[in-house]
Amino acid sequence: MDREFFFQTGLLMAMVWLGACVGSFLNVVIYRMPRGLSVNHPKRSFCPHCERQIPWWRNLPMISWLWLRGRCADCGAPIPFRYWLVEATTALLFLGVWLRFGWPESMVLFVLVAVLVAASFIDLDFFIIPHELNVTGAVAGLLGSALMPQLMGETVWWRGLMWSAIGGAAGLALLWSVVELGKLAFGRRKVTAQGNQPWKIHQPDDNEPPVFEWGEEQHSWWDLFARKTDRLVVKLTGGRLRLDGREVEATELVVYQDRIRWSHDPGGGAGEARLEDLLQLEGESDQVVIPREAMGLGDVFFLGMMGTILGWQAILFIVFAASIAGSALAVAPRLLGRQSWAARIPFGPYLAFGALVWVFTGPEVVDWYLTIGGWREVW
Prior knowledge:
Blueprint: H1 2-32, H2 63-67, H3 81-101, H4 105-126, H5 131-147, H6 157-186, E1 188-202, E2 211-214, E3 217-220, H7 221-224, E4 232-236, E5 240-243, E6 246-249, E7 252-255, E8 259-263, E9 270-274, E10 280-291, H8 297-310, H9 313-335, H10 339-343, H11 348-372
Antiparallel strand pairs: 1-2, 1-10, 2-3, 4-7, 4-10, 5-6, 5-10, 7-8, 8-9
Helix pairs in contact: 1-3, 1-4, 3-4, 4-5, 4-11, 5-6, 5-8, 6-8, 6-9, 8-9, 8-11, 9-11
């Protein structure tokens, strides 16, 4: 019995350490991937301040951050607490998955946990979910369901693969419909200022897309023009538009993804120019109509990825749980007088939360609900 106890204890400690090591790698992914840096080169982690590579004995998951008291050993710059949090969170989630599912199902769910953690932290910082993460999770879900059809409640490989693909398609279809309906209902935001506000469209760097600035607002190009049909409308005060320092008579400017059009009312002329031919546009305006999306496409593929691993039954639960969590975190800051907190959280982390709730308690919650509601026979 003692031997069995020590074996099981050692196995659990190994799962914690495995999760912490994966979390250490996820910190590399979270920092490098959205910045376009390779996660493989340089192979060793480095301090973002002094850029010195960190030797392995100073990069022990969870331990080194505590040992160094959250500071770089070379330059003394602070190391954000988030690095330790990512490692500890991943370690605890790996342990929980192993305790609930064991071998071999945990191998696929470990991939899901890693993708959820990395995508959530990247989304919090950059409001994007890299496609590489979604593809990694989807491939793991499809292959895992073929090799372990029990993940989908099946015994034959091709049926496991089929239901995994159906789960992915269900996730894509559900959020895609939300995106399209949201675009129809909330696809344009009309903003009116108190008095004239200076605005300009300029390119900060040759390798960067243009930026639209209006008063204190600043919008990146691909946030505005996620679709070719999107358009930004600027009502021009003073009847003037400045194109590369040249003044043009105009009362309205319509900006598309790759070109602009302006017009002058009443009875004035109109003009058009390609954005690539212009260096800067500017003027004054008291009203703009800004295109927007109800949700990013990264969230759509994110939920689709979850469906390939968790199945179609999990999709509605995840969206419902994410919506409840989002609503709760939207109300709480208002009660505390901190409305800006909730506005900073994108939907990806809420979806990740819903997925984790499903992994650990979802089927039991659904079974309980169907039982007390009398829907068990119908379901």
